[in-house]
Automatic annotation (TrEMBL):
Annotated HTH luxR-type domain residues: 143-197
Record's protein name: Response regulator transcription factor
Domain of life: Bacteria
Species of provenance: Amycolatopsis dongchuanensis
Residue stretches spanning the membrane: none
Length: 203
C-alpha cells in the first residue's frame, strides 16, 4: 500500500518502461497522474488497452488526447458502467486505486500472480462489454455539443416542450437527443442519467 502520487511514482514508474502489455481502467485522463509523468501519446509496439468512461469525451482536451492514443496504436474503449481504476502490467503487477477519504489517495500495488490474474479477469470482463472508441464517438457525435445544456434542462425539471423551445429544437428532436444521451450514459431513466452525469462530473 502506498499513499499519494509521489510515492506511487517512486515505487512504480519503472513498470511503465518495461515494454510489456499494459491495461488501464480510468474514469478520465486525470485519474493516473503517475502514468502522465512517464507516458505520452507515442507509437506503441506492445499491447496497450485503455478503458475510459464517457466523460473523457466531453472535455475537448481529453477527447483529443484519447483519439491520439488510438491513432498511435493503443486500443481504446468506452464504457458507461462502473469501473475500478486499475493499471495492469502484463502478468507481473497490478495497481488498484483507492479513495481519497484520508486526503491523499491510496494505491494497492500487488505482485502475487493469483491476485494479478484475478484483477486481469475483472478488467477483461469490463473490456468485453465496452465499446470501441470510434464506434462510441460515432453514436455520440450529434448529441455531444448539446449534452451539457440537455443535462441542465433535465436537472431543472422543465417540461420537454419548454426544454425543446429553449434549445431551439423540435420536440421530437429534443426527445431523441435525450434518449441518445441516456444511451451514452448507460442510463435507463432520466433520473439515472442525472445521477450518472454527476458521477462523471458533467454537472
Amino acid at each position: 500500500m502506498v499513499f499519494g502520487e509521489a510515492e506511487l511514482f517512486e515505487r512504480a514508474a519503472h513498470l511503465f518502461t518495461a515494454g510489456e502489455p499494459v491495461a488501464c481502467a480510468a474514469h478520465d485522463l486525470y485519474a493516473w497522474a503517475v502514468a502522465r509523468q512517464v507516458s505520452r501519446p507515442t507509437p506503441v509496439d506492445f499491447p496497450v488497452r485503455k478503458l475510459y468512461r464517457p466523460a473523457v469525451l466531453l472535455d475537448p482536451v481529453q477527447a483529443r488526447h484519447v483519439r491520439e492514443l488510438a491513432r498511435m496504436g493503443a486500443q481504446v474503449r468506452i464504457t458507461p458502467s462502473e469501473i475500478s481504476e486499475t493499471l495492469i502490467f502484463g502478468e507481473r503487477a497490478a495497481i488498484l486505486a483507492g479513495d481519497r477519504s484520508s486526503g491523499e489517495r491510496s494505491y494497492s500495488v500487488v505482485t502475487r500472480p493469483d491476485v494479478v490474474r484475478g484483477v486481469t479477469s475483472l478488467f477483461d470482463a469490463a473490456w468485453r462489454s465496452a465499446t470501441d472508441l470510434a464506434v462510441f464517438e460515432a453514436r455520440f457525435a450529434e448529441v455531444r455539443p448539446l449534452a451539457p445544456r440537455i443535462l441542465d434542462m433535465l436537472a431543472s425539471g422543465c417540461k420537454d416542450e419548454t426544454a425543446a423551445k429553449t434549445l431551439g429544437l423540435g420536440l421530437r428532436t429534443y426527445r431523441r437527443r435525450v434518449a441518445e444521451l441516456m444511451a451514452v450514459l448507460g442510463a435507463e431513466s432520466r433520473f439515472q442519467a442525472g445521477v450518472r452525469a454527476r458521477d462523471f462530473g458533467l454537472v
